[in-house]
Specification:
Elements: E1 12-15, H1 23-39, E2 44-47, H2 49-59, E3 64-67, H3 78-86, H4 95-102, H5 104-113, E4 121-124, H6 130-137, E5 141-145, E6 155-157, H7 160-171, E7 177-181, E8 185-193, E9 196-197, E10 201-204, H8 212-216, E11 222-224, H9 231-247, E12 253-261, E13 266-272, H10 282-289, H11 294-302
Parallel strand pairs: 1-2, 1-3
Antiparallel strand pairs: 4-7, 5-6, 5-7, 8-9, 8-10, 8-12, 10-11, 12-13
Helix pairs in contact: 1-11
């Protein structure tokens, strides 16, 4: 996929909101991005596709689209495909990487195919053999909707009795639900910006689970920057995350979530192709630690916009 700078900033439309379960987070991200663009003198306007759909966006005649639409409908390749058909440059990954990144199971299959470490998973259904799942993955385990972000619908299962109810909770968000081997250890997140890998963040949650509340509401979550790894370990983690991002076709910017087990092994958990940009979000924190303020970060992301005519 080739990529060029946005030639003209006559009008940048920030697309945010939408109808996914991540709507509220997207509204916050979009508002922060829009404000930053305006501070930089960019002719920018916000647009919520819930109000007027794709036709409403087209009527705004943007010169480029800043995608801040989290979740399905904005982060899964559908919006990206529509923008390519309209000939509109947009930020972030293209159709294939966006679709893969939104599908946790298929992301894992790609990583496994190229020999990258990611925890084993099993697809669940209401007729699953719960005992066999526990025997294969062990306890505790994670249960997740395949197509959701922001940890929506995710549970840590500590007994076989909890497994069915965790499946039911996840199935409220998605028809496809997976169980994943639980990695005991530290959680890291690594942001990528163009060709650069930003400093890793170690996430520490008093309750031990980085869920929706810990991400966006609570003030007790601790973000360690520097992350506490040695220079060699952080370089190894950065190389792994860059390889993981490239493997799914990621472009422009994104974030990889990783666990490190007690033996020091890093395990890839998932990729986020439209990361949050709220006051609690991780990419702005990593950028700030690297000396990139929020407004500069937003402009750098904008300049990675895809030229759809040369995308492949």
């Amino acid at each position: 996929m080739n990529r060029g700078q946005v030639g003209s900033l006559d009008r940048v439309v920030v697309v945010y909101g939408g109808t996914s379960a991540e709507r509220e987070v997207s509204l916050k991200s979009g508002a922060a991005i829009l404000a930053a663009l305006k501070r930089q003198g960019v002719d920018a306007i916000g647009y919520d596709p819930k109000e007027g759909g794709l036709a409403g966006l087209e009527r705004l005649a943007p010169s480029a689209v800043f995608v801040a639409l989290h979740g399905r409908g904005g982060e899964d390749g559908t919006l990206q495909g529509a923008l390519e058909l309209l000939g509109l440059p947009y930020t972030g990954s293209g159709v294939l990487a966006s679709a893969l990144g939104m599908d946790k199971q298929r992301t894992k299959q790609v990583w496994q195919a190229v020999g990258l470490p990611t925890p084993e998973c099993i697809m669940l259904s209401e007729h699953a053999d719960w005992a066999a799942v526990v025997e294969q993955l062990g306890l505790p385990m994670m249960v997740k909707p395949v197509h959701e972000g922001s940890t929506l619908g995710i549970s840590i299962v500590k007994s076989q009795e909890e497994l069915r109810s965790a499946y039911t909770a996840a199935a409220k968000f998605d028809a496809r639900v997976m169980a994943e081997r639980f990695v005991v250890g530290d959680e890291y997140t690594v942001a990528l910006l163009g060709d650069d890998v930003l400093p890793a963040i170690r996430v520490e949650v008093p309750g031990g689970f980085y869920d929706y509340e810990a991400k966006y509401i609570a003030n007790t979550t601790q973000y360690h920057l520097p992350c506490g790894l040695s220079d060699e370990e952080e370089q190894s983690l950065a190389a792994l995350c860059k390889e993981a991002f490239v493997a799914v076709g990621g472009q422009g910017w994104g974030r990889i979530d990783v666990m490190r087990d007690k033996a020091g092994q890093f395990w890839l958990i998932e990729v986020n192709t439209v990361p949050g940009m709220t006051d609690h979000s991780l990419v702005p924190q990593a950028a700030a630690h690297a000396g990139i303020d929020f407004d500069t970060l937003v402009m750098r992301i904008l300049q990675t916009a895809i030229a759809p005519s040369v995308a492949s």
